[in-house]
Amino acid sequence: MKKNFLFTLFLGICMSIHAQNCKMNNHTGKDETKPCCMIKKMQNGIYTAQHNAKLLKEAETWMKSGAWRNGYFRADPHMSVNAVEFYQQYKKNPDQWKALFNWLKNTNLYAISKGKHPIEGTSLVASVEDSENGALEKRQSESHRKRIDFQFAVKGTERFGIIEHQSSSPIKPYDEKKDVIHYKYDKEKALFFDSTPDKFFIFFPGDWHIAKVMNDTQDQNIRVIVIKVDYKE
């Protein structure tokens, strides 16, 4: 990676306005709902990008203001979203982010057909996927350098994993054409979060993640919106 991603997910939570409502599920399926348990585990690894305290405070204020919403109020950022990355990328690329939230606001996400839907006036494409969660062993970990993954489960529950950097290593070199790199990782150090229709996830280059992991619910069928936003250096 071009940057050293040396910031713990614990600090990501500190800058999130939703930390008090968050819920973490570990790989055993046990729910850890107490903040003290979450903080203790998240302090033990590196999961996302590093930023200074002043910028953290500035980003937190921006997130609380809702300046990013562009009229969209049906869901909020999940507590794992790196607020500084979101803040900086929004400022560097406002047209795409505004168009994204405007599309979410004006689209019936339940009725729209599955498939790819260009977002008018931009190069963005919204992928509407009717899919199913699978066993963790069959799901790949990944990260991207050129694109940001905006992911939103609008129906059902999708479990995401976020892997710890220092205990992970690339399986193969970065694939520039596909903009992806996959990792071998320590399952015991991975963090798992359930995505529901009231929260969306954003995975920046420093967020090495696993999507569509089987969770504890009876129904593993999901409808997911995936939009890849340009990452600006």
From TrEMBL:
This is YhcH/YjgK/YiaL family protein. Coiled coil: none annotated. It holds the Pfam family DUF386. InterPro entries: NanQ/TabA/YiaL (IPR004375), NanQ/TabA/YiaL_sf (IPR037012). GO terms for cellular component: cytosol. It comes from the Bacteria. The keyword Signal applies. SUPFAM superfamilies: Clavaminate synthase-like. Residues 1-19 form the signal peptide. Keywords: Signal.
